[in-house]
Every structure is written in structure tokens, then in C-alpha cells.
User: Fold these one by one.
Assistant:
Number 1:
Amino acid sequence: MAEAHDGRKQTRAKLEALKPLKELKKEAQAAFNRYIRLRDRRAGHGCICCGAPLEWESSMPGGTKRDQFRAGMVARWGEAVVADLEGPHPTPHLKHDDYRQIRDTYKLKARALEKEAANDSTPFKQIA
């Protein structure tokens, strides 16, 4: 039984090592997006553009326009933060391990938020 478990672990490790950069980038982005959704839901935030309550279980974006999104970001985080995010920035040349680290970091952060919510009597703020 232990040998079968070790064999599965080795197979998983080999498959992880063979993942193309594109797939790792997609996984890192998905983990980051999930964390941001959980963080914003926990804080009671609504739509970044209009503030309306969101369907949190949906992963479909609301069809926002760039100027609406930017205005919502400025309202929530401030002009200085948004200007800093907008750049200019040098193009990062991330490698496989960089994307794995990003993915794993945000998976852990998301799990921590979920555990925190599970321990609270009111796990997520409801948006009126």
C-alpha cells in the first residue's frame, strides 16, 4: 500500500515537472483570482465598477469597461496605488518555479481565509 502511495507521489511530481509555462501561468492566475475574490467577499466589497452586490459563486466577469474598472479601483484603493499598478514596469521574465511559487502562495492564502471564515460566526459579510 505504501509503495502505491509513493508511486502516485512520484507520478504527480513528474507530471508537475513537465507542465508547460503557459499552464503554470494559468494556474497561478487562477489561484490569485480566487484569493482576491475571497478577500473581497470577506471584506464585504461589491462590484469594483459600480458597487452592486456580486454573485460570488460565478466566475464570469461582469463585462466592465476599462474606465469603469479604473474609477472603481481609484475609489477603493486611491489614485497613488492605481498609478503605481499601471506602471511603467519592466516586463518580468518569470520561470516555471516562479509561477509555482505564486500559485502555491495564493492557494495557501486562500485556504487561510477559508479557515478564518469557518471559525467566525459570520463568515462573510453580506452586501446590502
Note: The chain has one domain: 20-119.
Number 2:
Amino acid sequence: MSDQLIAWISAVVLVCLSASAQANGVTIDSREYKLLLRPENFAGDPGARAAEFCDGRLKPIIAAHLDRRENGESRAKKSFALHHQRRVSFKDTADCILSTTGFSYRERTLMATDAGATGNVETTLKFRSPDIFLSAASRFEGSEGAKSKFEEDISIAQGAVSRSGYSYSISRKQPAGSLATSLQSALEAFPGSLQWLESLPATQPRPEALLGTGTVFAELVYSKARVDLGSDTDGEFDLTFWYPSDAANRDRPTVVEISFGYETDSGEVDGKVALRASKLFAAMRNELSALIAPGTQSKTSRALPTNCREN
């Protein structure tokens, strides 16, 4: 079966699944398409690499593979600009109880150079599964002011075929001095999460288990570039660079990810929007095939403690 036929079938399947982002009362808030890229191709100044990638790769792909807007112009809009500079880390237990059951626990802080930087840490607990109903059933809670999101993530599996995962997450901010050191202290900030973890198959979590931290990364996120998907819906691109936080210079990233996503209309997605997004992702997979990173396409996995990472 040819790569073009596989891409076409994948696009059709995604549209069939996505014309409505609701299933038996489950409402998807947003959809995000992701590709991990070979970091060695982005060595040097990240701002320059982002501009080159936008003008030399993304915009030509959009122009070649998507229909034009009513005014005859390409559906590509704007260009990348530095949006976030953050420190990112993930934690898990020695027996990887979180990652092996679909959970992830992230800590993220704005760097001093980022506007709005404070002493607070954003902590995010996420549960992810290929089963949309299982993810929806995980609805744990957060403290007052916490933000929740139910999202579909579209990435690629072996053979460059698209696959979907569904994640429910809650993010909250807390003082840097009160960070979690054990499984219990991490989950108690998200009521219902420990009970959900305990209910999953073949899990016997030990609440007292200590948490270990994976590689701490300096994260640079370039945003603002967009694609007009129609029906007043823009897909918003992020080009994300991860560097070891202790690196003297940010000229050799460890992880590079290109992603684009869009919000649903209370769970509804226009069929033409879904089709354009699927066609664009198929075109990106094909046109950027030489740049796609080998191994796992999970960015999170690459930041976990070493023994918890995927291959």
C-alpha cells in the first residue's frame, strides 16, 4: 500500500471520527496534532531556525496541500514569535506507577526573562488513554482557580500512521516551596485522582512512594503562526525547543516538536475544518518525513526519569 494511499485513508478516518467531537455525551474541548522532529536539524539560534522552518517548510506545505481562501490567498497566516520561556520537569515513582498507567505529573515555571514570571509553579496532572470513554471517566478535581481540559492528541505510530489519544488534565499554580515529594503529596492536590489510579487494572500504588525527577529542560515556545481552517477556526502552531536547563548555550536542542491545534465549538467541529486539519497533518507527515525523529513520538517520555522512558 502506497504512502499516499495510507495518508488518504488516515485523513478520511480522522474526519469520520472528528466531524463531531462528541461521543455519547463526552465533549472534546480541543484537538492538537503533534510531530517530534530531529533536533540536530535545528542547531543554532532558535529564533532563526523557527523563522526558516515557518517560511521554508510550513507555509509551502499549506500553500501546496490546502485549498485557497475566498480571496485567493494561502491559508497560512502570520509567522513564529517567541511566546514562552519556561523550565519544565516531570516526576514519577521508582516503579513508574504514573507513566505506566497513563498519568503524567508536570511542573513548569516561567523563566525570569519571560513577562509575568513569578515565584509560582504550575503543576499539571494528566491522564491519557486511547480510549475516549476511559479518559472521560477519570474526571478528578483541582483546587479553586485550577483549569481543566479534555483534549484529543493526534500523533503518529510506527509506519507513520495517525493515532489519537485522549487526555484529561488539570493545571494549578502553587508556591515553589510546596512542591510534591511523594505520590500522595502530588495526587492529594487533585481530589479523586488517587482513587482513579487505584481503580485501574493491575495497579497497587503506594502513596508513600517518593517521586523522582527526570531531566529538567529549558523550554522555548515559538507561537503566533496560524492556518485558516475555515468556519472562523484557526489552527495555531507551536514550535517547541527543549534544552538541558544547565546548558551554557541554547544552540543544540534535545527535543523539537511542531504542533498545531484548534478549539472545538462546545464539542462540535465543522466537517470541512476537520478535513483540512487532517489533510494538513498528512501533508506534514509526508513532506517532513526526513525530519521526523526516530523512536517514541512522546515528548513527555523524553523528560521522565530514565527508567520510565519509552524506547
Note: The two ends are 27 Å apart (CA to CA).
Number 3:
Amino acid sequence: MDTQSACQCLPLTIPGTGPARRPTPIDLHAFDTAELRGTCDPIGQLEENLHLFGAIAALSERQQDVIMLRYCLGYSAAETATHLGITDAGVRSIARQARRRLEQLLDLEGKGNADDTAQ
């Protein structure tokens, strides 16, 4: 089975910037979120987005792939598993590990946990 990373699913250029630079998924998503488009404080929301996507960048490559596919692109666990060539249980396990690591990186421990069994 041919597997790809989450980076290969995303567009290679930001509109208007030309093909000279290949942005990372963090470049694309930190500046184009629903929260940023609908906020009264775009600078504050942008800072929060950059902080979050900086933390995602500190994860392992496999954890980044799962987080990007599941939570940024909205793939189901089954779709993510198929795309990455791993099992559904593997996706859920990696997502759980990644969320725990993000809690540490973002200093969110004890402020509420995401449901580990979420689809």
C-alpha cells in the first residue's frame, strides 16, 4: 500500500506566493482557520494559532500526520488509518499520545482532556 504523510495531502503553494517556496502545513493552517476568520481579535487568535501549530511541529512525524489528518483536515480514524497504512487502533493510540504531548507542550494539564475514544 502506498502511504503518504499529511504534508503530501496539502496544497504546495499559498495563493499568490508562487512555486518558489513550499510551505509546511503549519504555514497553511495557522493563518487560515475558522477561528481566525470569525474573531474580533485576529492578532490574539493568530498568536494562539501559531503557539498551537508550533507545538504540533514539536511532535514526531507520525504524530503530526495523525493530528493534521484527524483534526486539521477532518479525516475519520478509518480514513486516516487507510491513508497512513496503519490500523484504526494505531491511529487512536497515536492521537492519544499526541494529545498528551500537546497538553504538556501547551501547559494544559489538568484543564480538561479530550475524549480518547473520539472518532
Note: Residues 10-18, 115-119 have pLDDT under 50 and may be disordered.
Number 4:
Amino acid sequence: MKNRKIGGACGSDFRASLQATFEFLNEMEEKALNEKDFDAANLPQRLFLPGLDLGAMPNHINRSGLFAPIAKGARTFHRQATIISRSDCEIRYTGEQLDEADAEIIMVLIFFARSFHLGEYVPLQRAQVLRTLERGDGVVQYEWLHRRLNAMSEATLFVEAKNRDGSSRYKIGKSAVFRILKEFTYDPDTDTYSYVLDPRWVQLFGNREFSRLDWTKKMMISRGQDMAKTLQRLIATSSDKVQRYALDYLKAKMCYGGRMRDFRAALSRATGELYKLDIIANAQIEMNTRKEEQLVMWLPEMSET
């Protein structure tokens, strides 16, 4: 019997039925992801991670432009802005543009919350935060810390991690708001903060998708070299000893609005700082196979970034 093509009214009905089935399955998948997101937002859990130390951050965050080496002054306010990230992750953000100092604060809060359930209050003396950040403990620094905690408690994220086929692995912030810092209070009598991290940070850290860097070396990076701190976080997301990043990507990730030639010079200073601290072994800007400029960095054979 010859094969016959499905056509005419029957063929149209079959295609319509197939389309309806796909739409139904997509709706069910979306509903399941939303329910999982809502449940995770309301279930306190511990962040059990091997080797979790000061300086840990999810890879999706470190690869994105959420924290950037911005200049001092007025900060851009984003509203549901799509933040540059890798193709396997979509991040939308509402809040002030965050900088490298904000990233360091979050790393400190994650570290001190490791013995608690995320979703529950963690007590922490504010002087201990500043000491860990290697900052002074004067009034100006206390006021700065309080402002930054306020800003991050107002900032919200939507994160969708994707599989290789483009389907969703998980969604965070879809059915329940995800705040970078869920809550915090200050008790002046004990000079202590009590803060809450959203339990869904556990999901962001899941499947060993997090970076560890050398905090001591991070604190040794010279003042005014925040671009070097951004690069240190970025190279920590990969174990590759040779790493390549397109300059267009780096420029967007770092929220650099100046000329490309000035950006190249700034990158040279930043990589020089990393070389000085033995975080990288070498770096240069070269053309890739598509005739596009890229930064190539070689990591030392035996070191943490």
C-alpha cells in the first residue's frame, strides 16, 4: 500500500489536535514550574554545599551583568530590565544598578547564613560585616552599609534557567517575588542585623553551579580596580585554564558606556591587577575566528581564582 499524505479536512484536524496537545502540555509544564517556585519560596532550607566558603556566588549571577564595576555617582534604576547573561539563563531585574561592593556584601551574607535555614532570620553584628569586607567601622561606613542593604532588599529578580533544548529547568521569581535580600532589621541595643535570604538561593546554587574564589586575593585588589573584581568573579565560573570572552559581551556586562578604545585600556589595567596577584598568568586581546575582538586569559596551573 502506498503511503498517503495527511491532507484535506482530516489533515487540518490532526494538526489542530496536535497543536492543542502541545499547548496543553506547555501550560501544564508552566503551572508545575510556578507551583514549584511558590513552594520553594515558602520552605526554609539549608544551603548544604561542599566547599562553600567566603566568596561563593551562583554561576548564573557571576556571568550576568547584575553586579557591575560602575562609576560612583547616581545609579541607573532598572525596571523589569533584561540583564545580559549567557544564553542558558534569562534574568530580569528591578532596582538600582548594583556594583562590586554590593556583590561582596551578598557573598558575606551567604557565608554567614550557611549554618542557618535560608528563609529564617540570621543574626549578624554589623561591625563583623564591615570587618569581613575590610572596611572601617566609622559612622560613614555604617551608613553606607545600611543604604546598600536597603537597596538590595528592594531589588527583585526573575531568573529562568534553560536546558540545552531551550526548555525551562526552573523559574525563580515568577509566582512569588524574589528579593536579593528578602528582609533585614537592625537592633541598635545589640548593634546587630537580623536578615533573611530567600530559600530559592539554594536552587540558584544547585547542581554545583556556583563559583568559589580566593577571598584574600579579592580583598588585595587595589582600590578603584572594580573591573578586576568583575573579571575575577567571571573566570571563577569555569575550570578552563584558558578563557575567552568577547569584548562586546564584557563591555555590556560591565555597563561600560565609554569608547571601545578606552574600554580596552581599562581591561588592560584590570588584567594587570589580576596578574600582579597571581589570579591569572597572562592576558591579551586578540581576534577570534569571526574577526571579533576577544579577551583571552590564562589561569595559573595551580591556583584558585
Note: The CA atoms of residues 232 and 305 lie 6 Å apart.
